[in-house]
Amino acid sequence: MLNADLHCHSNCSDGVLTPAEVARYAYDGGVQLWSLTDHDELSGQHAAHQAATALGMQYVYGVEISVTWAERTVHVVGLNFNPACEALVNGLAEARRGRVARAQAMAAQLAKVGIEDAYAGALRYASNPDLIARTHFARYLVEAGFAPSLPAVFKRYLTEGHPGFVAHCWAQLADAVSWINAAGGVAVLAHPGRYRYTPREFEILFTTFKELGGKALEVITGSHTKQQYQEYAQIVRHYGFWASRGSDFHAPKESRTALGSLPALPADLTPVWHLWL
Fold it and tell me: Whole-model pTM above 0.90?
C-alpha cells in the first residue's frame, strides 16, 4: 500500500518544526503521499507543497478544523482542496477568532492554582500567536516543571474538570464540511477514538457527518490503539466511508508515532486517496 500520512502539524499551528522540516521527516520516514494539516490555518501550505515536491513526494493540501459538536470538540480534516477558495479561507479566519481570549482565560485558571505567567510562557512556543493552543501551554508546563511530559500535563491540567480547561465554541460541523466541499476537497472525521461519546452519540455523529457530505474516517492514526484500528475499520464498512491514515505528528520527541511508521489500512477498506489518485 502507498505509504500515506495525511495528518500532521507544523509550527504554523501547534507543531514545533517548520513545514519544510516536517516534509523532510516525512520523506526520511518513507512517506510517499503527504499532507500538512495545521489547525484552522493554511499559511504553511505553500512551503509544505514546495518541500514535498522537491523531495519527490506527492502532496495534497490539508487542514484540520476544530468543531464543536454535542458540547465537545471534534476535528475534521480537509484534504485535496483549492486553498484559494473564498468560502474556506473566510471560514478558517472566522474559526481562528477567539483563540487569544480563550488562552488568556486558560492562563487565569492556571494562576488560581499557583502557575503564574502561563500565557507568556505558552506564547514562547507559539510561532503563530493567533493560533495559541493547549499544546503550547502543555509545553510550557513541562518546561516549568509542573509535569514530566505532555501526556502527564493533560492528565492534570487543561482538560475538562482540571485547572486550565476553558471550553471554546468552535465552528459547527455543517460549516466545516461545507467549507471543505466548497473548495473541492474531501472531509475526513479525524481520530474518532479520542472522542468521549456514548454509542448513541457516535451513531448520530457518523450519520450526521455522512449526511452533511463527509466522505472519510481516520482508521489508522497515532492516537488509536490496535483494537481501535479494528473498531473504526468496522465503522467504515458499516457507513460506507473511505478510510484515511495519518500520524497526527507534532514533534519528534512528543508524538506517539513517527511519520511513515503507521501500519497499513486493512486490505478490504478503500483508501481516501483513491478519490483523487
Answer: no
Q: For the chain, what is the largest distance between any 2 Cα atoms, rounded to a whole number of angstroms?
A: 53
Phi-psi region of 12 (alpha: psi -120 to 50; beta: other; left: phi over 0): alpha
**Which pLDDT tens digit goes with each residue over 224-242?**
999 999 999 999 999 999 9
Q: Please report where in the chains the cell 450526521 appears, as a residue.
A: 208
Distance CA 277, CA 275 (A): 6
| Structural contact between residues 75 and 64, judged by C-beta atoms closer than 8 angstroms | yes
Specify the pLDDT at position 128. 82
Q: What are the CA-CA distances from residue 47 to residues 19, 43, 235, 252 (Å)?
A: 6, 8, 35, 20
Q: Which of 182, 184, 191, 247 is nearest to 216 (CA)?
A: 191
CB atoms within 10 A of CB 38: 26
Beta strands across the sheet bearing 33-34:
4-5, 33-34, 58-59
> What dihedral do alpha carbons 186, 100, 136, 141 form, nearest 10°?
-150
